[in-house]
Write a structure and sequence with these properties.
The protein is globular. The protein has two domains: about 35 residues; about 160 residues, Lipocalin. It contains three helices and eleven strands. Strands 1, 2, 3, 4, 5, 6, 7, 8, 9, 10 and 11 form an eleven-stranded antiparallel beta sheet that branches. The chain is an alpha+beta fold.
Length: about 200
């Protein structure tokens, strides 16, 4: 190998090394960003990506005597998305009374259940739920019952709700009443959006 060929080889090796280093720096930057972004922020951004879409659901778990969701068509619709509030109507058969309301509060997420009558007036039992107590996980946020829930539904004092959101796979709404057999889990398939349902009761649009 002559001197000119050696220079070409050295130049090539240097170029390859610089490329590898650049790739390493880029990957490291993404990794650091992923590690430093709060888990609940990642969860929120993934939820916002579903805005405007509706998905069909199925009961994954429920008490043996449950008749609320059994044999009903279940649809969630990520209908309203604001910077700090996302509203998700949950349609059960012909019943359009339910909306899940998620609100960002500083570094936490609040879940509330907005229940309405067909004329749009609030149900007697409404706006129960809870506030996350930590940043949670990018794919899971948990909401233990708050004091408003205890005041509204004393038996629900030990309720814990949680939402699992696996991008491109599924959204699962869950409820467990600690100390009892009460457990609901409804899983929505995110791979196949469906036709959006009519507006929930009480909505003007």
């Amino acid at each position: 190998m002559n001197e000119e060929q050696e220079l070409i080889v050295v130049a090539y090796q240097t170029m390859v090394q610089k490329f590898i280093l650049a790739c390493f720096i880029a990957v490291s930057a993404v990794t650091v960003q992923a590690q430093t972004e709060p888990a609940n922020s990642v969860f929120w951004k993934e939820l916002q990506k579903l805005c405007g879409k509706a998905f069909i659901g199925a009961v994954a778990a429920a008490p043996a005597d449950d008749t609320t969701f059994k044999d009903k068509t279940l649809v969630m619709h990520v209908r309203s998305c604001e910077k700090d509030r996302i509203r998700i109507p949950f349609v059960v058969g012909e019943d359009r009374s339910r909306t899940w309301v998620l609100t960002q509060r500083e570094d936490r997420i609040l879940l509330k259940h907005d229940h309405r009558h067909e004329d749009g007036t609030p149900d007697r039992v409404t706006m129960y739920g809870g506030l996350t107590t930590s940043a949670g996980m990018p794919t899971r946020q948990m909401f233990p019952a708050d004091q408003e829930t205890v005041n509204t539904i004393p038996a629900a004092a030990t309720n814990v709700w949680w939402i699992d959101l696996v991008p491109g796979e599924h959204f699962t709404y869950n409820l467990r009443r600690i100390g009892s057999e009460r457990y609901f889990s409804i899983r929505f398939d995110l791979k196949t959006p469906v036709k959006t349902p009519e507006a929930p009761w009480g909505w003007k649009d």
